[in-house]
Fold Protein kinase domain-containing protein.
Amino acid sequence: MGWIWLAVVLLTSGLAPALGAGSLCAAPCTPNFKGTYVVCSYRRLLSLDVPLCPNQMSPDVRVTCDLDAATTPVSPDWTVAGPHVAPLFNNMSSLSLQTTNGPCCTLPQRNDTAFPTLKKLDLQCTTSLEFWATLPTPLFTTLATLRLTVPASNALSPRDLPPPSPPLVGVTAFDISAADLVQVTPDATFDGLPNLSVLNLAGNLLTAAPGQLWQRLTALRFLDLSDNYLQNLDSAALPSSLQVLNLSRNRLPTLPAAQLQALTQLQELHLGSNVLTTLAPGVFAPTSNLRQLTLAANHLTDLPSTGLFAALTRLQLLELSDNALTKLRAGALRGLGQLRTINLSFNQLQTMEAQALATVPQLRVLNMTGNAGLKTFPTELFAHQGLLEQLLFPGCGLTGFASNQFDALTSLQQLAFYSNNVATIHPQQFARLTNLVYLPMASNRLKELPPHIFDSLTRLEVLYIDSHRFTSLPPGIFDRLTNLQQLFAYNLNLTSIDPGLVRHNTNLRYLDLSNSFQPAHSQTVDLQLSGLVNLTTLLLTSLQLPAGTNQALLARTNLEHVELGGASVCDPATGIGNFTLSDAMSRFVLQDTNCEAIWVAAHRVAAEVVLMYNKQLTSVTVRAIDLHELAVSHNPVLRTLSSPACTEFDMSGTPLPYDDRYCQAWGQNVFQARSLSDPSSYSDNLARFLRNCFYNAAILDLSGNGFMNRLTVMRETLGQPFLVGTGMVQPRVQINRMWTPVLSFAAVPALVLQDVPAKCSLQSRWDRIFDQANNNEAVDVYQQFDCACVPGYSTQGAAGTCTRNKTFLDHWWGILIVVVASTLVTLPFFICVLRVIFRRLRKVEDDLELNARLLENAETVVSALKKGWEIDFEELALRERIDGSIPGTFGEVYRAEWGKFEVCVKVLRLNWLHMDPMVRQDFEKEAEFLQQTKHRNLVRFFGLGETNWSPPAPFIVLELVERGALNDVLNKEHLPWRTKLSIAADASRGLAFIHSLGHLHRDVKSGNCLITSDYRCKINDFGTLKRPSEDREREHLRGVEDDEGWIALGSLASTVASTGSSQAALMTMSTTAGTPMYMAPECLLQGKVSPAADVFAFSLILWELHFERSPDILRELEVPLRGPLFPTLCRVYREGRHLPLEGMVDWYQRLCAACMSLEPADRPSFDSVLHELEATLAHPDLDMEVKAVVSQPQLDLDTSTEEQRV
């Protein structure tokens, strides 16, 4: 019986014109029809998309007819369609039968007609599935794909889906997606489809899929269970024939290893958008043929380094985006030797180990977008990715890269790192990326670009450097980019620009320099564009071009899109701008100008003219043969507009008065008038304005206008009923038993009303529709906007004006009540707060008084303790002065006897006391430091006092170190190599201890390294330990810069300069800032003092230990000395030279070079140095005199400082 419905529709749609039937879709036929869908709906009386000639149809015809069981007459036999239907069926490749409000079609068991070319059958039913169960096999001998569609309102149970009889042996694909299936039981459901290889169950309500079901489908290759509610899979294995398994968008919390046991042929596995948190080891072991694995949008937090994917040796795509991974470990991708693409975007990666990608050398695409906590890459991360073509890591919070970060990526074509925090970039950062084509590096924190950063990128086609704080671009920075086609350099902060910036980029098609200049630095630039013959898009807003240049640009035949702006666009004398566009120009934008009147002539079909944000513009005249878009928005004083009709029109933010041409001529399809600044004329003409726009414009935006508050007018105009897509002529709708005219639109109009007193919402209603032209009546849906006041507003007056409701605070008494209530509520709180404050103030006063008393007591205690350290000068017997070759900073050093002990006495020089009263304070600080500090590698402190000389001088008593200073020892003896290393370790240990206390020595030299009888080293002379006050810093460190640019430090420089060039003095004499020959370059050149300066001085001790001679850099480099020594030293360091290190063993040379680095930041800490020396000393096979150990520990420049206390 169901076939007759199809036949009737086919007849009434003009498919059998020879029968002379009354056709609702009749039209002259068109031969050689090659359409894909033909729709002939009885209910809506739609005409055919293309009239058909039944005998001249291409094989790819698809036919769809809506069958209305309630209105379609019933006939006992579908063959009434006659011979004219057979040619249609004989050429169909796809047939879709759909009912609107009745049961599905039922075809009789007929064998006299077949569909010889039919490949796909789509059944769209609503209630029963009789047609599905009784498909006549002879009619569908070639059918390969069967789709069964059931609306969401009807959930199917398994018993509703009986197997077709007889079986459809030719059907290999069955689609029953989005059918609201809640369960599929292992019955005979699919027995009628014995050769099924594709099964689509996506978009249902399944919570489980029994394993016994899959056992019946032995030929199944593709199984789609996505968009269900699966929480687990049956423990029985899936069919081993599966090649594609889609389990995306379910609720799987785990993936049992047994579930994939038999899937040895699986090539694609999709597990995205589940709730997986972990994956069991070996879960993918059976699926060694897998090519694609999707694990995106799960809750994975870690990939173990044990090789979760080790068995997937053929995998080419790994999708891990939108998880919660925090770290990518070395070995996590082990086994993926053929991997081509990995997506790690939008995880929470913070760390990537250096060897994390070492096991994926075939990688072509690496996406790490959106890992905001990544911050930095290990230097060797990409060392094995020589075949990588795309590297994407925007939005990762990266602050910079190592200079050789990308050197191994010689095949790279796309490098994207926009929206990071990169502040600096190395000049050779891209030197090896010669195949790069696409480079978006916008929105970082770069303030400048190195001049030759892009020189090697000769194949680059697209470059984004926009949204930075560049104040200038180096001249010629783009000269080598001869293949560049698109350059985005907008939103910069330029103060100047090179006119020849892009003169060599002859292949450039798109150039955007808009909004790149600071308003305060606006200047005229004659940008050289004549050689850019391929340029089609040019955006230069905020760039001032010379007079006459603008019109020359607009006349160029290659330009299609131009945006200009700035004060030089229009004639400064008249404020008038005349712009004649070339025949090729389709879009012209003019903004932020000083123009008062603009005249534009456009000759291109569908031209677009945009004139916005021109504060002085009062008049616009446009002449065009075919204007598509005209935008004159945000011109605050625009009053006059002359233009031809346009499809899209925007006048937002202007005071243009009402005009009848709105929406009829200007804005026939899109009309925007947001926040008009002079609404008075619109209030007077609101009904006519809304009627014109509602009848004509498909998109109407009147947001932000207060005049949209007259509800009665809005309901009369915007509230008219309308039909969509019917093609009826003068239709009427029966509303409340009255025939009301109804509008007919091709599409539903879009009405945008934001920030207005009234809103209009679209409503759909059923009613009787009468078509006067065809004298036909039917029940159909019509649309209507219902307008009402927004919440907080209500209608007032006869016009139904939406007026804001008065609130409690709109009355004076309401405000008074709120103030009084607030006072009553908050007053107790403030009283409590004040009481608490006063109590705390009293407690603070009591604490201050107590602390003052305690401080007095503490000062008494401290004075008593200091008394314990005092030594009477009479107790000492000075024997001889022992610092003749190594004078200290402030004192003279004597050998003395103190009772039965030999000690060292350091006496402050009297001349220093007269020259600088602050010296006594520094001397006392040295004594105080020694009192509070005890370490095996610092000289021991015994006490202090004052001499009985006139005038008295302070002194301190220290441990006497037998062998004296290291330089004296090296001059007298040849020490074994192990002894030298032990001395260096002792010195670094003592200095590390000083640094750990937050102090700097500032006079590290071999003369201050004292050697005991057993050749242990102790650090001495802490006169420069504390940095002087700011005033003394300026006095001693502020130098006089001569024509060579050197800085003389304090009085010593002038002394040396005046006495000639005493190198010996500079090797031994100390100043308040240290001994000159041992001073770091930054101390000499800039007066900067830091822990790294002590490390530099220590490097000279290491050199001295090795070569057993003073570290005289001028002598070693054979630099002639003419005049003062300081300029010569400064010049040597400015040239980047240092003491020669040839002849040292490798590890010792590396240590010296690191400590001797001219850059303070590159020097190691003393803890790192000590670690290196101790590790070497601990080696049992160390050759003391000749060579180093074959494998020595490497110096770690990043080891943090630790305190070493004894």
Remarks:
- The longest helix spans residues 812-869.
- The chain has 22 helices and 51 strands.
